[in-house]
Specification:
Elements (H helix, E strand, L loop, with lengths): L2 H26 L34 E7 L5 E10 L4 E4 L4 H4 L8 E5 L2 E5 L5 E7 L6 E4 L5 E9 H6 L4 H6 L8 H5 L12 E7 L2 E9 L7 E3 L6 H6 L1 E7 L2 E6 L4 E8 L2 E4 L8 E6 L1
Antiparallel strand pairs: 1-2, 1-8, 2-3, 4-5, 5-6, 6-7, 7-8, 9-10, 9-16, 10-11, 12-13, 13-14, 14-15, 15-16
Length: about 290
């Protein structure tokens, strides 16, 4: 046989053998695995709904309000009534308010228009025109002499309308599936880390220890006003429970509206935002 021809045959045979080996190796090799799917990120929790504390219309105004002169301990708890009088809607307040907040001596009624609460005199002229503060939780007005006043809702129709205890709100709610046991137990949990339970004194600017509150621990985290309370504002607010979260304390009224407080040093907690007369809780006993 021709040597050149033999060489060509050997090369062809070697090439065929290498091709077979490569094909077999390709069949035995595992297919490249797909990259692991990244775990789906959980959607951010929806923000807590904003509790309505200021009225959107005249029907939400009637109720009890705390009127105070900013930067002083002068205050008056008044009732803006729903019935009509000679100067708008009727206003009721104790006789002592004329001494503590003299400007109310000229007030004969109230009006509500364009989001503004106006305390008016007998001729329906504005004495104080209260506009909403940016925090949407209180009103502020400036008198003719330049002093500033705050009007803070204590228990008004707008709060009752947004309260979970309001039967009209419950009737309007759509039917829900079986309740989740975890959220159902949340309101009865302990207050959590932060302010310790115990007896707290309420300080109002220059007036200290005007009322004492027993902040309980354990299930329900109840709040109880102790006998001898001399602060009508906290009595009307009527706190029922309390909680702490992210370094803040919250007092929750029976109607569902709240007062938020932040640490102020030396075991005290002050209202945040600071509106009206000072509101400071000071722990005095375990």
């Amino acid at each position: 046989m021709n040597p050149a021809r033999n060489t060509v045959c050997l090369r062809l045979a070697a090439g065929a053998w290498l091709a077979l080996v490569g094909a077999a190796a390709g069949q035995d090799a595992p297919a490249p695995s797909a990259p692991p799917a990244s775990p789906a990120s959980e959607p951010p929790a929806a923000p807590a709904p904003f509790a309505i504390t200021l009225p959107e219309g005249r029907g939400g105004v009637p109720g009890t309000w705390d009127l105070s002169r900013d930067g002083t301990n002068r205050r008056c708890v008044m009732t803006l009534a729903s019935e009509s009088g000679e100067a708008g809607q009727k206003v009721y307040f104790p006789a002592g308010c004329r001494r503590s907040v003299p400007v109310v001596g000229a007030v004969a009624g109230w009006l509500f228009a364009d989001g503004v609460v106006r305390l008016v005199d007998r001729n329906v002229r504005p004495v104080l025109a209260f506009a909403k503060r940016p925090d949407q939780r209180s009103y502020v007005a400036t008198a003719e002499a330049g002093e500033s006043y705050s009007l803070v809702p204590l228990e008004i129709a707008a709060m009752r309308a947004s309260s979970p205890l309001d039967p009209m709100a419950i009737a309007a709610a759509p039917p829900e599936a079986a309740p989740d046991p975890v959220p159902a137990q949340a309101p009865r949990s302990a207050p959590g880390p932060g302010a310790p339970a115990g007896i707290y004194a309420l300080d109002r600017l220059l007036n200290r220890d005007v009322c004492r509150l027993d902040l309980g621990d354990g299930p329900g985290a109840p709040v109880r006003l102790l006998p001898g309370c001399r602060d009508s504002g906290i009595e009307v607010f009527d706190p029922a429970t309390w909680r702490t979260s992210e370094g803040r304390m919250t007092l929750v009224a029976k109607r569902g509206h709240v007062v938020n407080l932040v640490p102020a040093g030396d075991g005290t907690w002050r209202r945040d935002p600071e509106t009206g007369v000072a509101f400071v809780l000071r722990r005095v006993a375990p």
